[in-house]
Amino acid sequence: MDRKNFIKTCGFACIGGAVLSPLLQGCATADHYVKADTKGNILVIKKAEFIKTGGSGKASYHKYVILKNQQFGFPICIYRFAADEYTALLMRCTHKGCEVKPQGDFLVCPCHGSEFTNRGVVQSAPAQENLKAFIIKTDNENIYIQV
To answer: Where is the Rieske domain (predicted)?
Structure first.
């Protein structure tokens, strides 16, 4: 390959990478944000918020939903493990207070790289303390988060 074709090929590769990168990121799991009703110091979320919409006929569920919460200044990530098993975690890193980001079955702090399980347990430093977890109760239709 001569120099002109090499430069041309590299140029197209760079442009292609720049154009395709945002499109491929769109294929990643999108966060599902929910709203909660407030009853005193209890946040109430419908279990139906975890159901994915789609025409497959088979029920599928979001692994987690994110609840925006003004009271704490950070959102709350609610993971679903089973029909009546959930965990609610304040998305504030215990190391320096950055907002952690869910990455499937774990949460990562973009500031310094701390990692936490979907139950809030520290997996990777520099954080030394687990994420704040809230007490949860459920009934047939709702999830109740005590804040």
So the answer is: 63-145
Fold (topology level) of 31-146: Rieske Iron-sulfur Protein (2.102.10)
**pLDDT, tens digit (0-9, with 9 covering 90-100), for 61-76:** 999 999 997 788 899 9
- Collapsing DSSP to helix, strand or coil, 85 comes out as strand
Q: How far is CA 13 from CA 3, 7, 21, 103, in A?
A: 15, 10, 12, 29
The sheet carrying 42-46 orders its strands as: 33-34, 64-67, 76-82, 85-90, 133-138, 142-146, 42-46, 37-39
Cα gap 140→111, rounded to integer Å: 39
Contacts of 21 (CB under 8 A, 6+ apart): none
Length of the chain in terms of residues written: 147
What are the residue ranges spanned by the domains of the chain?
1-28, 31-146
State the number of CA atoms in the 13 A half-sphere of 137 facing the CB: 5
Residue 24 has a pLDDT of: 41
